[in-house]
Design a protein that fits this description.
alpha/beta; TIM Barrel; 13-stranded mixed β-sheet; 13 strands; globular; binds S-adenosylmethionine; binds iron/sulfur cluster
């Protein structure tokens, strides 16, 4: 038995907003206490999902009685777009829509249109791919730039064991093809590697997408939330992933596309494309973390491993002006000191952190 913490309140608690500064005028987020700018905003558009991935929404916790958010609690598209514009004024350059499963949110294309209308913002989405074959063209037409599709194995039994929803590999692959055909390219494919669960799928996954133009990224299994029973022993270090693939398909490291890129890039020596590894556990990248997260109900989190957030929905619905919300975001960012991945231990892993399906991956 793993030492699992079942959340009694799933960690959705709010911290008080920081008091107003002396300046009176418009405040800038600038750098946080570790010198990091606010560049990326991840927006969770739903806390619901049609999968029950064992590392994210274990079925014994996220069962039929799980208290998902009511519709009235979700930020509306208008509220999300308004906040996105305010974040843009604070230096944000990139939005990733996520969840839960973002494609479950009704009329998501309408939100995409609204966000795509904000100039100078790169707009992407992460999905489990289950509805992508149906929706790829409409997403592209609405203004989405690229997608990341999660796929943990090409082996039918392993994939169904990982998604715990009896969902077949073929439909996710059809989603990847549809995304590429619609021009949502290059498609990135995220594989979370969990020891004893899908390690055997690493090499087949690399081989399947080598030369396809798609980029597979192998992600170290993380202790997000408090329900997945995470243990350090279940993490397969990225260095092992690289060694495994390199043994039959030689690799060499490539420079990052930009400073602070989360995935470490490797390319095949024969020129057949590249892969990435995301080593959040064995090689923390907190020092360059420029990401803020907006939960489905409008709480702002400054770290994936936060235990509390700031209630921006309260400001929106309480009549605050854009300038007031902008000032609050600036002060929250200036006070940010998060660096959880640098201080992770078996003990911190048991903290009642916010669930990934709620905060957005
Ligand atoms: N449902 C969508 C999906 O699965 O792509 C979007 C939300 S999901 C929370 C975002 C990403 O987080 C996915 O690529 C997923 O594999 C990853 N993820 C979830 N739980 C994780 C964990 N415990 N460790 C590492 N990655 C995780
Ligand atoms: Fe759903 Fe994505 Fe979490 Fe899997 S990783 S349970 S698809 S939100
Ligand atoms: Fe960023 Fe928090 Fe992850 Fe560090 S642990 S990289 S601060 S989200």
């Amino acid at each position: 038995m793993t030492d699992r913490v079942i959340p009694i309140d799933d960690g959705r608690r709010a911290k008080p907003l920081p008091p107003k500064g002396e300046s009176g005028g418009s405040e800038r987020a600038g750098r946080d206490t570790l010198g990091r700018h606010l560049r990326d905003l991840r927006i969770s558009v739903t806390d619901r999902c049609n999968f029950r991935c064992i590392y994210c929404m274990p079925r014994d916790v996220f069962g039929p009685d799980y208290p998902f958010l009511a519709r009235s609690e979700l930020l509306t598209f208008e509220e999300i777009a308004r906040l996105a514009r305010v974040f843009k004024d604070q230096g944000m350059e990139k939005i990733r829509l996520t969840g839960g499963e973002p494609l479950l949110r009704k009329n998501l294309e309408r939100l995409i249109e609204m966000l795509a209308a904000i100039p100078g913002v790169d707009l992407t989405l992460t999905t489990n791919g289950s509805l992508l074959a149906k929706k790829a063209r409409a997403l592209k037409a609405a203004g989405l730039k690229r997608v990341t599709v999660s796929l943990d194995s090409l082996d039918e039994r392993t994939f169904r064991m990982m998604n715990d929803a009896d969902f077949p590999v073929s439909e996710v692959l059809a989603g990847v093809d549809a995304a590429a055909a619609a021009g949502l390219a290059p498609v990135k494919i995220n594989m979370v590697v969990k020891r004893g669960a899908n390690e055997d799928s690493i090499v087949p996954m690399a081989r399947r997408f080598k030369g396809s133009g798609h980029i597979v990224r192998f992600i170290e299994y993380m202790d997000v939330g408090a329900t997945n029973g995470w243990r350090m022993d279940d993490v397969v270090p990225s260095a092992d992933v690289i060694r495994l693939i390199d043994a039959t398909m030689p690799l060499e490291q490539v420079d990052p596309n930009y400073a602070g890129e989360v995935a470490e890039r490797w390319r095949y020596k024969d020129g057949a494309g590249e892969i990435g590894v995301i080593s959040s556990v064995t090689q923390a990248f907190c020092r360059t973390c420029t990401r803020a997260r907006l939960s489905t109900e409008g709480m702002l989190y400054t770290c994936l491993f936060a235990t509390a957030g700031y209630d921006l929905r309260g400001m929106l619905r309480g009549g605050s002006s854009d300038e007031e919300i902008s000032g609050a975001i600036a002060r929250i960012w200036q006070a940010r000191a998060d660096h959880y991945s640098e201080i992770r231990t078996a003990e911190t892993a048991k903290l009642r952190k916010i669930e990934m399906s709620y905060i957005g991956g």
